[in-house]
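worker-03 picked up job from queue 'complexes'. Input manifest follows; two sequence lines, order preserved.
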Amino acid sequence: GQQVQQSPTSLVLQEGENAELQCNFSTSLNSMQWFYQRPGGSLVSVFYNPSGTKQSGRLTSTTVIKERRSSLHISSSQITDSGTYLCAPNYNVLYFGSGTKLTVEP
Amino acid sequence: EAAVTQSPRNKVAVTGGKVTLSCNQTNNHNNMYWYRQDTGHGLRLIHYSYGAGSTEKGDIPDGYKASRPSQENFSLILELATPSQTSVYFCASGPGGAQDTQYFGPGTRLLVL
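worker-03 finished. Artifact:
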């Protein structure tokens, strides 16, 4: 299968701080998705980003295919942002990274 | 909003027993997927399907079979369950193609004793 590496593995922030999550992949891809998973819960797509930069509210995703990387930036973090964020490059099927566990404390 | 349901939500099975996990989607998506999620491994693709009657092997198909009898239903079958198959299983559906986005079910927790 494809190699997908996410960093950091875990991240603890104080409410209001910004977060930068990284995803590196081994080969060129069709598109990139980011998913959010609440502890014990299912996955919800938060971003579909083939390339370039996209913003939705406090979330910004940047994918640079030639550099084999994608990032998810969360600004002004909130307690409700806590959970695991997984990147999933699309190679006709999705390959998932192991995720970054984000904890936002008051 | 996409709707993917899974049953059962929790299952305890004995080693050597047969287990069937069911998935239903009401979005008329062509593609359906079965993943398992284990600590340290993220989600790994077991089987997927492009439509009724089709099943394809994913990255870790050994010990699993799949069945897609209709557009809406996709089952994962463990003929001889083993403790190593204890995991959380997720089903997903999507329209398919290079720009596929996937909608996930709530997951099934399987414990094989």
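worker-03 released lock.
The longest strand of chain B covers residues 31-38.
Chain B has a mean pLDDT of 93.
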